[in-house]
Amino acid sequence: MTARARHRYPVRAVRIVSLCPSLTELVFDLGRGADLVGVTEYCIHPAEGVARVEKVGGTKTPKVDRIVELRPDVVLLNEEENRRQDGEALVAAGVPCHVSMPRDCGETAAMVRSIGARIERAEAAERIALDIETRARRVAERARGRERVSFAYLIWRKPWMSVNATTFASGLLEQAGGANVFAGKADRYPEITLAELAVAAPRRVLLCTEPFPFQERHVDELATGTGLSRDRFVVADGEYLSWHGSRTPDGIDYAARLIDDARA
């Protein structure tokens, strides 16, 4: 880091605990990785950086007492990744918390700005937020007026589960010109049957690599179970499609490539 960059940012340390993997990655990309005093065991990026930070449990099983002992200036949580009762317990113990849950690119840019302000990295956050907004606008404009590509996005096996229109992943793919065949399901993460998938017959069935680690071998299982051609199934990077934060700019372009490939 240059002397000019060091001068631009405050030197005051901010003790941070992150209980969401995508937010942990964001903290590092905002230049505050050294100020993390606690992360979850599921925080894996950047590998070298998180290896040096104390693990304070899982996203659903944080060690609340230990987090309180660490005296953080802020704990970063996500409404979906983390449990409400853990956040409430931290607040009751006097620990400042920042809770977010963006559902689309606009809300993600706002979240990045909010966290940047909270950990005194507003300038770095603004660069990421503007990148999100610029790429989202470009992808949406490219998709306007073009044929929509029907898709299903699978996140789990046994039972088979998909996503509805209110999820971040569906939003990215719809923005790029996709049409979620399970958009209207009442549950955010509905259980589906292979018979339903066969009837919906989406042009693309995206097999997300997280939370269930879909692999190429599952393509054969699904093609056999639905009768759909094998070339409709694609294993997709779940981090690019479901992590919101500094990974979102590349996730926007990745979603667009998936939809463009389906058109081709």
Q: Care to describe what's here?
A:
The longest helix has 22 residues, at 122-143. The chain has helices at residues 3-8, 21-29, 47-50, 64-69, 84-92, 105-118, 122-143, 168-175, 194-200, 217-226, 238-242, 248-263, and strands at 16-18, 36-39, 74-78, 97-100, 149-154, 178-180, 204-208, 233-236. The strands form 2 sheets. A 4-stranded parallel sheet has the order 2-1-3-4, sandwiched between helices. A 4-stranded parallel sheet has the order 6-5-7-8, with helices on both faces. The protein folds into 2 domains: 9-119 and 126-133, Nitrogenase molybdenum iron protein domain (Rossmann fold, 3-Layer(aba) Sandwich), CATH 3.40.50.1980; 148-263, 3-Layer(aba) Sandwich (Rossmann fold). With 264 residues, it is of the alpha/beta class.
What is the CATH class of the largest domain? Alpha Beta
Order of helices and strands: HEHEHHEHEHHEHEHEHEHH
- Estimate the strand proportion: 5-15%
Q: Average pLDDT, to the nearest integer?
A: 94
Largest sheet: 4 strands, parallel
CATH architectural grouping of the largest domain: 3-Layer(aba) Sandwich
Helix segment tally: 12
**Low-pLDDT segments:** 1-10
The spatial strand order of the largest sheet comes to: 2-1-3-4
> Which structural class fits the helix and strand makeup?
alpha/beta
CATH superfamily of the largest domain: Nitrogenase molybdenum iron protein domain
Gross morphology: globular
- Counted up, domains total 2
Question: In CATH terms, what is the fold-level topology of the largest domain?
Answer: Rossmann fold
Radius of gyration: 20 Å
Number of strands: 8
Distance between the termini: 43 Å
**Helix content bin:** 40-55%
